[in-house]
Specification:
Elements lengths: L5 E5 L8 H14 L4 E5 L5 H5 L10 H5 L5 H4 E3 L5 E4 L5 H9 L7 H6 L8 E5 L6 H9 L2 E7 L4 H17 L6 E8 L5 H14 L12 H5 L7 H4 L4 H16 L6
Helix pairs in contact: 1-12
The chain binds adenosine-5'-triphosphate and magnesium ion.
The site of magnesium ion (MG) has 4 residues, from helix 1.
Length: 259
């Protein structure tokens, strides 16, 4: 039997820091190395779904998988990359939170729903919504590790300390095994501010910060409107180059250096 997939939540309570861009681009970059990957869109905004060319109105999706109305095979969607599959989200997912709040095992619905998928992939990524909602807690409870994109800007470190508290809270409550996969500097620029933020973050978190940094790159912001991940939208771009580098670093850190 294949070993179970590692599940990685891409999370940061702060909005617009590059969670979805990272989830979509890293999954695609891993799939380009023929690593089998599943991306679970777990945000009612459904940006990861549309970013991979999926239709957010298509049902069933992650919501139906979680509430037991659909099984895994019914919600898996193909992407243009053969070893990358998607479980989509839709705006209805916001309503799921209210329904979930009533349930006794409300924090582990996603974890239980993804159990059968563990046998099929090497890595499963969960694109979490911003804010510390019941959805985010489900995402973090389902994960083995959390990958934290940090936008290189003045308030970045403040946001990270809030996140450290959140991770502690998750470890103390719904998932004592949760590890930090790494912090990823996103939208870096050639300014003093950007390098100061990188310097401080690395000083504070040391090797938890990925060596790879993701520069601000206009091609990365254009790709979602074409429903394509950056590596198929513009392979020659700086954005594609940096996410391919991140994929290599990620695999190496996970003992898969030769992929
Ligand atoms: P939310 O909290 O709303 O889910 P998010 O953390 O998932 O947001 P993204 O949607 O990935 O963040 O990115 C926010 C915006 O910034 C998007 O318009 C995206 O295209 C753009 N963006 C992300 N990373 C980069 C980058 N490296 N260079 C340029 N634009 C970027
Ligand atoms: Mg997002």
């Amino acid at each position: 039997m294949k070993p179970a997939a590692k599940i990685i939540a891409v999370s940061n309570q702060k909005g617009g820091v590059g969670k979805t861009t990272t989830a979509v681009s890293l999954c695609a970059a891993l799939a380009a190395s023929r690593v089998s990957v599943l991306l679970v869109d777990f945000d009612p905004q459904a940006n990861a779904t549309s970013g991979l060319g999926g239709d957010p109105s298509e049902i069933p999706n992650v919501y139906h998988l979680m509430n037991g109305e659909a099984d895994l095979d019914e919600v898996l969607r193909k992407t243009e990359l053969p070893t990358l599959q998607l479980i989509g989200a839709s705006p209805d997912l916001a309503g799921a939170e209210i329904e979930m709040a009533e349930l006794e095992d409300r924090h582990h619905l996603l974890r239980d729903a993804l159990q059968p998928a563990r046998e099929r992939y090497e890595f499963i990524f969960i694109d979490c919504p911003p804010s510390l909602s019941l959805l985010t807690l489900n995402g973090l409870a389902a994960a083995d590790s959390v990958l934290i994109p940090v936008q290189s800007e003045y308030y970045a470190l403040e946001g990270v300390s809030r996140l450290t508290q959140t991770i502690q809270l998750v470890q103390d409550s719904v998932n004592s095994e949760l590890e930090v996969e790494g912090l990823l500097l996103t939208m870096t620029t050639r300014t003093n501010l950007s390098s100061d933020v990188a310097y401080e973050l690395r000083g504070h978190f040391q090797s938890l910060v990925f060596d790879t940094e993701i520069p601000r790159n206009v091609r990365l912001s254009e790709a979602p409107s074409h429903g394509k991940p950056i590596i198929t939208y513009d392979l020659a771009s700086k954005g594609a180059e940096s996410y391919l580098k991140l994929a290599r670093e990620f695999l190496k850190r996970n003992g898969r250096g030769n992929s």
